[in-house]
């Protein structure tokens, strides 16, 4: 059996919410339904402000009874914890950053070969030897949460690590955009296609819910994410996407420049990008994938 390859995701941290009030705090503040989270099922979620704009995005999993973990970049974690601090005095909870956990990515195919276990729609989280493997968005890579000892067990059966660019590209190909400290509060859930995988429209109220729901049910032609590519490897996320009349039609959220092509994740209304689109600054044609 070939050894698996890992990608170190050392930019990630866990915001741990624990106590008898953890469920009620999260259910009343974030976009996913905590009722649906258990030891075998994790979920993508987000935290919005009162104007319905996304403050942070994360993966939520059950650590133990009355304790949940929110996985996100460290800087975003600090913003999220600050936002929760407005509400924690009203709940029996403790919020803290758990720095004892390590994060890696493993190819799903390697996991299947090594452990002979598979995921289902009702079981996207599997724990083996103290390591949690989370499968989401039909990604090529799994997210692995480990203690130091658990990581050592995985590395013992793994080869040298892959570059994090493989993880970044997998995120983009899966149309997944995670909020950073610079994009916090800038976008609505629909602009990031969170309505498809992070917002549960059947759950009760949460901060910003009324505005998000009104947009979802009353607005037409809402923006969403699209993946594009170009042969131009010089483009960046500060450039503009325009139509053939040089009118801006999309926001660039993220760019990955490879050796011979670039991938570009954009947010736009679908009818605005049905025709030819290009990068204004370089005149490079963008093809929608």
Structure, described:
With about 290 residues, the chain is α+β, with helices and mostly antiparallel strands. It folds into two domains: about 5-175, 2-Layer Sandwich (Gyrase A, domain 2); about 220-289, Elongation Factor Tu (Ef-tu), domain 3 (Beta Barrel). It is built from six helices and 16 strands. The chain has helices spanning about 20-25, 75-85, 110-115, 150-155, 165-175, 210-220, and strands spanning about 5-10, 10-20, 45-50, 55-65, 65-75, 95-100, 100-105, 125-130, 130-135, 140-145, 225-230, 240-245, 250-255, 260-270, 275-280, 285-289. It is globular, with a radius of gyration of 20 Å.
Summarize the structure.
The chain is α+β, with helices and mostly antiparallel strands and 289 residues long. The chain is built from six helices and 16 strands. The protein has helices spanning 22-27, 74-84, 108-115, 148-156, 164-173, 209-218; strands at residues 6-8, 12-18, 43-48, 54-64, 67-73, 94-98, 102-107, 125-128, 131-134, 141-146, 223-230, 241-243, 248-257, 262-269, 277-279, 285-288.
Fraction of residues in helices? Answer: 10-25%
- The gyration radius over C-alpha positions equals 20 Å
**Broad structural category:** alpha+beta
The largest sheet is: 6 strands, antiparallel, barrel
Element order: H for helix, E for strand: EEHEEEHEEHEEEHHHEEEEEE
> How far do the termini sit from each other?
35 Å
